Automatic annotation (TrEMBL):
Transmembrane segments: none annotated. Pfam families: DUF413. Belongs to the MaoP family. Residues 105-117 have a biased composition (Acidic residues). This is Macrodomain Ori protein. Residues 94-117 are annotated as: Disordered. The lineage of its organism: Bacteria, Pseudomonadati, Pseudomonadota, Gammaproteobacteria, Vibrionales.
Length: 117
């Protein structure tokens, strides 16, 4: 990631409330994405909250991407959008049984199989 003008954060970025075991161990991020979040996450969070002001063209574009996610071009921007969606969005929960009950009119008895013979 040395080909970027984006500033490193003053400290490593962690989100212990949503990802207590780390970003990569959550199963949602790759090791490379985890490294991006840890190195640049502090700066990205500061830019998003308004605590930091953008200093170069990449950071200015990042601020625009926060307002309009469809403009994301770089890996940094896409990883931050993925993080914000997972950390702040609704967590999907899949159950093994559904809410819908089978129709009472359907006959699942052995009689139905015998009638076909």
């Amino acid at each position: 990631m040395s080909d970027t003008q984006f500033r490193h954060g003053k400290k490593r970025f962690y989100d212990n409330s949503k990802f207590p075991r780390g970003f990569a161990k959550s199963g949602d991020f790759t090791l490379a994405e985890e490294e991006i979040l840890m190195l640049y996450g502090d700066t990205m969070a500061g830019l998003e909250s308004g605590e930091l002001s953008p200093e170069n063209s990449e950071e200015k574009h990042f601020v625009k991407v926060i307002e309009n996610p469809g403009k994301a071009k770089t890996k940094l921007e896409r990883v931050w959008l993925k993080y914000t969606q997972l950390a702040r969005g609704r967590k999907r929960f899949h159950t093994l049984n559904g809410r819908n009950k089978p129709d009472a009119s359907e006959d699942y008895s052995d009689d139905a199989v015998l009638e076909e013979d």
